[in-house]
Amino acid sequence: MKTIIAFALAYLLLHILPASAQGPDLTKRAPTAPDLQSRTEEKGQLHEKLDLPEGYVLYKNLKDLSRNSSVVLLGKAISNLCELSPDRKGVMTRYKIRVDDLLADDFAAVDPKADGFREKFSEGRVGLKKGSTVDVILPGGKISFPGGATAQIDVMNVQRMESGHSYLLYLHYSAQLRGFVVTGLSRGMFEIADDGESLHWMAVTKTDKGFRLESKTFESSVSNARTEAKMNKDAHR
């Protein structure tokens, strides 16, 4: 249980306290959990399932998502690659997303919502424009280590993106991950239907009976997303 909790916390990288807030006495901390490679090599193969805690705000409409995201874009998943998380205790999947349309960004804001976003991307808007490719990171995935040992972490309340499919994404930039993370875990992800307008909400909610896909409870469209993103942008000018 301690190992699973430690792994879950590794993905809450936008909420880590600065070192100065953690207290000066580091000698009394609990022993550090072993990294994923060590745990995997002990067994030869590791397969774990977990669900990550969501934030206290459960976004229920495009207006809320627009107000609480640094970037809103339409894009197509080109490829993906699984890798160790920065603390080497978990797995994350790095998706290459081609930006087909940039609906909103936070560059013009005096106080950007995403820490480090202005510093890393604002100059010339490098890496964030129509036609460019950006990294979007989701928790979970499967990775192989030298010697053949494999580790697979399934995050039950986060759906996966598929190469070749198009998405509406509400995002924040994480300097630590060197890429974007989704607002509200899975609540800021929508798959765009073949008609280019209809949306399939990819949010997953944990209930007493298991995990429930929220796709049938959210009715909206790409046009609505454009309108809400523009209204939010105009309100902050």
How is this structure best described in words?
The structure is a single chain. The protein has one domain (2-12, 32-235): OB fold (Dihydrolipoamide Acetyltransferase, E2P). 18% of the residues lie in helices and 33% in strands. It is built from five helices and twelve strands. Strands 2, 3, 4, 7, 8, 9 and 10 form a seven-stranded antiparallel beta sheet that branches. Strands 1-6-5 form a three-stranded mixed beta sheet, covered by helices on one side. A two-stranded antiparallel sheet has the order 11-12. Strand 5 and strand 6 form a beta hairpin. Mean pLDDT is 76; it is low at 1-30 and 115-126.
SSE blueprint:
Blueprint: H1 2-10, H2 36-43, E1 45-50, H3 62-67, E2 71-84, E3 91-104, H4 117-121, E4 133-139, E5 141-144, E6 150-155, E7 166-174, E8 179-182, E9 189-192, E10 199-201, E11 204-207, E12 210-213, H5 222-235
Parallel strand pairs: 1-6
Antiparallel strand pairs: 2-3, 2-7, 3-4, 5-6, 7-8, 7-9, 9-10, 11-12
